[in-house]
Amino acid sequence: MTERTRVRRLPELAHDDRSTLDALLDAALVAHVAIADGSGPVVLPMACARDGDRLLVHGSTGSRLMRALTAGSPSCTTITLLDGAVYARSAFASSMRYRSAVVFGRYSLAEDQLQALEVLTERLLPGRWSELRRPTDKELAATAVLAVPLLEWSVKVSDGWPDDDPADLDAPVWAGVVPCHTTWGPALDAPDLAPGRPPSTAVLDRITLDQTWRT
Ligand SMILES: Cc1cc2nc3c(=O)[nH]c(=O)nc-3n(C[C@H](O)[C@H](O)[C@H](O)COP(=O)(O)OP(=O)(O)OC[C@H]3O[C@@H](n4cnc5c(N)ncnc54)[C@H](O)[C@@H]3O)c2cc1C
User: Fold this and answer.
1) Given CA atoms 20, 25, 27, 31 in this order, what sign does their dihedral have?
2) Section 103-112 average pLDDT
3) Of the candidates 3, 40, 52, which has an alpha carbon nearest to the alpha carbon of residue 154?
4) 134 in contact with ligand 1, CB cutoff 6 A
């Protein structure tokens, strides 16, 4: 932990074990990456994938964010998983269940561009890389995969119940938690999909919602 990764409010929700960070990152597909350049601060969402001790993102070599990150701009990346809403007996005590991480550091070009691209592709859909043709040289030239080391980070996990003022406990309202889950599917064929191209096993394995049509 460093001074800037020390969680100040509700520090009891902070976790400093790598396994909690890794589990969170491995469950996330989206990171919000922040930089500050000559135009001021900007935070942009990006696909992400943990690969061992680094977090990968990729994008167009022409984008402002990618150019700044490639040039070594200091960055702050947040990853958030929403697990539920906590409805207390007052608006003040209402909150959210979540797992979130903050990673500070400078991104740099991943040395193994093709392998890093494979990690990102597989993160989005395990098994997909082997279903697809290899990227062309032109595609590779237009894309950069960047990595930030997982060295300076914090994790906060909120999984509690309404923490109401004792004076509110008899209030005539429901209190509790409504969990929130991410579900996938059903799969939608692309409008220009050629006939005879059913979803692959990898795609079907991704789907968690209404699989009755699978049989
Ligand atoms: C989905 C979601 C909703 C939230 N809603 C609110 C809200 O409405 N209002 C509110 O005040 N807070 C909210 N929070 C909590 C918020 O992210 C901060 O934790 C909070 O503002 C207190 O920050 P601080 O003053 O302790 O830390 P700061 O002094 O601002 O930050 C110090 C360091 O603590 C670490 N840190 C702080 N927060 C987090 C975090 N969430 N995850 C990982 N590391 C962290 C970072 O490394 C940061 O650099 C929400 C969090 C999540 C994930």
Assistant:
1) positive
2) 97
3) 3
4) no
pLDDT confidence tier of residue 44, bands split at 50, 70 and 90 = very high
In angstroms, what is the span from residue 9 Cα to ligand 1's centroid?
Answer: 7
Tell me how far apart the alpha carbons of residues 212 and 215 are, in angstroms, rounded to a whole number.
Answer: 7
- Please give the structure tokens belonging to residue 49: 């994938």
Q: Mark whether 60 and 143 lie in a shared domain.
A: yes
- Rounded mean pLDDT of 56-71? 96
Domain assignment of residue 173, yes or no: no
Whether the link from the prior residue into 186 is cis, omega within 30° of 0, is yes
Contact yes or no for 64/34 (Cβ under 8 A): no
| Cβ contacts of 66 within 8 Å, gap of 6 or more | 59, 60, 144, 146
> Given this model, what pLDDT does residue 209 score?
60
HSE (CB half, 13 Å, CA atoms) of 157?
Answer: 10
Q: Can you give the residue range of the structural domain that contains 91?
A: 3-164
> Residue 174 falls within a domain, yes or no?
no
> What is the whole-number distance in angstroms between the Cα of residue 143 and the centre of ligand 1?
32
pTM, full prediction: 0.94
Interatomic CA distance for residues 211 and 177, integer angstroms:
27
